[in-house]
Amino acid sequence: MTKLKNIKVVVTDLDGTLLNPQHRISDYTKSIFQELHHQNYLIIVATGRHHLDAMAIIETLEIPVYLVSSNGARIHSPEREELFAFDLKSDVVKAALDVEIDPEITVVLFKENVWQTNRINERLNAFQAELKYRPELVDYKTLEDFAAIKIFFSHENHEKLVALKEAILANSSSDLHHAFSLPTCLEFMDKSVDKAVAIQRVLEKEGFSLEEAVSFGDGFNDVQMLSETGKGLIMGNAPALLKETLPDLEVIKTNAEDGVANYIASKILNKEFVMD
């Protein structure tokens, strides 16, 4: 196992990981990441969120950060230059939606500057402190252009999403793969798109290896990232099934306890004081 003294890169998910339950970065976490920057660590945020949404969050850190967004479909440099982009073709998305979908399920197509949805979901809006990435209500029956960065479904009943996943996989292109970022959130991307693949692109650009990276995550869209970096750490608030899927990985404090910042402070920066 990689020794933490060899770690040069810190990779973190946002929701349920770096962000607290109020979907914000705490002042303590901000101070720890600023110290990481001052000590010349490379920092990568890898999230399922759209880049416009995520950029508004990571700007509060006030340090240079690489951004992997939409589960790897976009990569932006610390200067906000787009380094990589991948969109699902319109016919692929249309085929995925050509199944019977419970009208209570929120359907979202992530577009470049807007998200197109079948219903306004205030719970999803609550994930944005400020609406940097706005919803647009559409009727998918009359929509002509289905091209999207990714397809997103949300419902409080996890089993409904599982049934929808099976229907889409049975009906759609084999080029799609899925992930549950949360039990209530099902996402479909191209099979070539994954956080770990995008992170590898950033590391190659910067001259680092996966073995030199530590990663933090709480969802099934983090599995490859957590598995392939030198040290993968699971949040205490992550679903039990994720912990069972990756039984060899260490489980740390929850996002409500500033688990990422506490771990970095004690294990990487070697600070004696950590937040309770």
Automatic annotation (TrEMBL):
The keyword Disulfide bond does not apply. Coiled coil: none annotated. Its cofactor is Mg(2+). Keywords: Hydrolase, Magnesium, Metal-binding. One of its GO terms (molecular function) is metal ion binding. The keyword Magnesium applies. Belongs to the HAD-like hydrolase superfamily. Cof family. This is Haloacid dehalogenase.
